Description:
Blueprint: E1 32-34, E2 40-42, E3 59-62, E4 70-73, E5 80-88, E6 92-101, E7 106-112, E8 117-124, E9 134-142, E10 145-153, E11 159-167, H1 168-171, E12 176-181, E13 187-188, E14 194-197, E15 201-202, E16 205-208, E17 224-228, E18 230-236, E19 240-249, E20 260-265, E21 268-274, H2 276-279, E22 287-297, E23 301-310, E24 313-315, E25 317-321, E26 331-336, E27 350-351, E28 364-366, E29 373-376, E30 379-389, E31 392-396, E32 398-400, E33 410-417, E34 424-432, H3 454-457, E35 460-465, E36 473-479, E37 491-496, E38 505-511, E39 515-520, E40 523-529, E41 544-552, H4 554-557, E42 569-580
Parallel strand pairs: 12-14, 22-37, 28-31
Antiparallel strand pairs: 1-11, 2-5, 3-4, 5-10, 6-9, 6-11, 7-8, 7-10, 12-25, 13-14, 15-18, 16-17, 17-24, 18-23, 19-22, 19-25, 20-21, 20-23, 26-42, 27-32, 29-30, 30-31, 30-42, 32-41, 33-38, 33-42, 34-35, 34-41, 35-36, 36-37, 38-39, 39-40
Amino acid sequence: MKKIKPISQIHRLKVMLPYCFLVLPTLSFADIYQAEDYTWSFDTTTGNSGGAYKTGDVDIQATQDEGGGYNVGWIEKNEWLAYQNIKIAQSGNYIVNARVASPSGATFSIDLNSGETQLGSFEIPATGSWDKWITVTKTIYIEAGIHNLGVFAVTNGWNFNWIEIIPEADILNGEVVWAVNAGGNQYTAVDGTVYLADEGFTAGTSAKTTQIIHATQDSILYQSERWGNDFSYEKILENGTYQINLRLAETYWQSPNDRKFSFSAEGRERLSSIDIVAEKGGRDHAAYDLSIPDVVVSDGKLNLNFKGIVDAAKISAFAVRKSHMPENEWQLIWQDEFNTNGAIDTTKWTHELWVPGRVNNEWQRYTDRPENSRVENGKLVIEARKDNYMGDEYSSARIHSANKADFLYGRIEVSAKLPNGIGTWPAIWMMPTDVFSYATTCDAQTGWDEDCDAWPNSGEIDIMEHVGYDTGKVHATVHNLDGYWVNGEQIQGTVYQPAVDDGFHTYALEWSPDRIDMFIDNTLYYTYVNPKTGWQAWPYDKPFHVILNLVVGGDWGAVAGVDPDIWPQRMEVDYVRMYQK
């Protein structure tokens, strides 16, 4: 099989040949430039044995890569290809992608203007075959102007199909300013985020697995990682406030406490001990998405650091985002500002009156008493009490908007202050108003018995859940038949915000036919994309309603027990607002 011919760093060659003339348009989107479309080259062997695409010594052959056409082969060390008049419209970061193949691995580098500006080297991993192609990627700062581009073979033994240069601002969509697939190649996630090939790191070792990662729509993103006792990432960024979305998965240990590590951003420890398996309920090979808001860059450079505590630290991917700014097109269609003291507005809300243990092994009795729910000083108060009401040790309240404010697609905002203490479990969430919409074993006539599959078939959307034994970690989840805890595929996002019990935060949902996004104070920490495979994965095409409640204990809330000495505890809600376009 043929090897590829390199592109040049002309300053290294004794014979100075002019760069070839390939005039490229100003780059504002992805254009691919074929390796064989050079006009000048340096080749150390005579004769083109690859084909008759053009005359000269460069070996050009019909490619077996996707898309067909030709590639350059038989590349030897110190050979080069050159392209001229590359137009860069403005200075900034650019994504450089190259399509290559190499049975045993190789290295090439690129430069501008006959080696005047070195842009860096690309390591080609062993692909196992001359015809097994991969894309290698690097983010490079390039000054505005018209440049000559050289591609130089640092080593031999690789094939070259094409190269492209894309403005980073074009490929990092929307609010994302930097995203990295740690230890891996460039990857476009189902939500549209482009994770660049591993870059910006100091120390650590890369590793990969072929095993499926569960509880995610992007298993491939978690199959590579960077790990080590002390490693870091650095990026030049303009000063401002950012959020960091960490993508984690445990692919080695199977038990909690086998791996613990810390995470710091901008020199400040944000999480002192991350235990992925413990956070995933004892599961390995499952995605754990953890977001850190309010990271302030003041020196023009973002620094992220990972340190092992028990065994090594690790990261599969991360994204750095600006705050989400809701679109101006949202129009307020329903609200409760809780401005009138006294009982809740029953034209907007309905109480559930339940005994303890009806769902989730919860400890409280739900009542409509003012002791458990009321409007007070402009806030809705849902209060859990240890008061032995009707013979039950704990009481609380659960209210919903079903048949009074049902909602299909749009934005919901809930401003709330959460309780604290071991045993509390507040939630802001949604259920389908027709809970039997996708049920197969029950309906409105038969009712909901123990064999009813209305849940999870008809879906559930959890905008906010918080358990008091793990204070500061807020969770968002969607439940459906394809992805829920029984089959180990429940997809969840977590944000670390330690002040949730010390002030009001805005918990928001943006819901369309294509995706569900969830936020805290405009920090995006959860996305679920409609895979368009049927109701089993997307039952979210029917009206849902809002539920506000405060649980005592239960399957999740009582994992660490229930503190008997903290009651009463309350969730306060400043407002609930619904918007549509």
